[in-house]
Amino acid sequence: MQDGLTIKQALASPTCQHVTVIGSGFIGLDVVEALVNHGKDVRLIERAKRLIPDAFEPEISQLFYHELEQAGVNIHLNESVEAIVGDHQVTSIKTDQDIYPTDMVICCTGVKPNTEFLHNTRLERLSNGAIIIDKQGKTSVENIWAAGDCATIWHAQLQKPVYVPLATGANKMGRLVGENLAGKSLQFEGTLATSCVKVLGLEAGRTGL
Length: 209
Fold this sequence. Notes:
The chain is built from four helices and eleven strands. The protein has helices at residues 2-11, 26-37, 58-70, 167-181, and strands at residues 18-22, 41-46, 74-77, 81-86, 90-95, 99-101, 104-107, 153-155, 160-162, 195-199, 202-206. The strands form four sheets. The protein has a four-stranded parallel β-sheet with strand order 3-2-1-7, with helices on one face. The protein has a three-stranded antiparallel β-sheet with strand order 4-5-6, with no helix packed on it. The chain has a two-stranded antiparallel ribbon with strand order 8-9. The radius of gyration is 20 Å and the shape is elongated. It comes from Photobacterium damsela subsp. piscicida.
């Protein structure tokens, strides 16, 4: 919440006109849309070869590219950020290809389970650190439960636990685990990883594998 309020306050300053967004996932594109609507000069940097690479096929990525390009967004694909330059205040951003002046940098580079502190425990985790749970939210250790973006979620089609950090699944699993801890014995039948995104005049959704 505080980060959001800080960004809002900074954007209100007349000296903040050039904003760089790192990452073109769902959150990154939402941020870009908001910045465009606020009249900012927006630069979007994505290290992959196309926009929203983990969610949609190349044809959909291309449609979003043209939508943002027509709105005046400076898009940089296949480019990685190396440093944010500035003393107490950002002045530019350095990538593996160039240095760009900017008044603000907003990082939208995805999420990672914050579970390093569990390294020497008996809790089973995926390679990315996500705590593996079953349909009830139980972990591999008795009387320890988990839910949300730190944990896996059962996939209805794959029939196995996967890491899908979406608010919908986190909300459902949090409620289910809470009820199970209160004495119920509920099971989550599985996610289809359904998600959607709207950017300016373009909307897209996906579900399934």
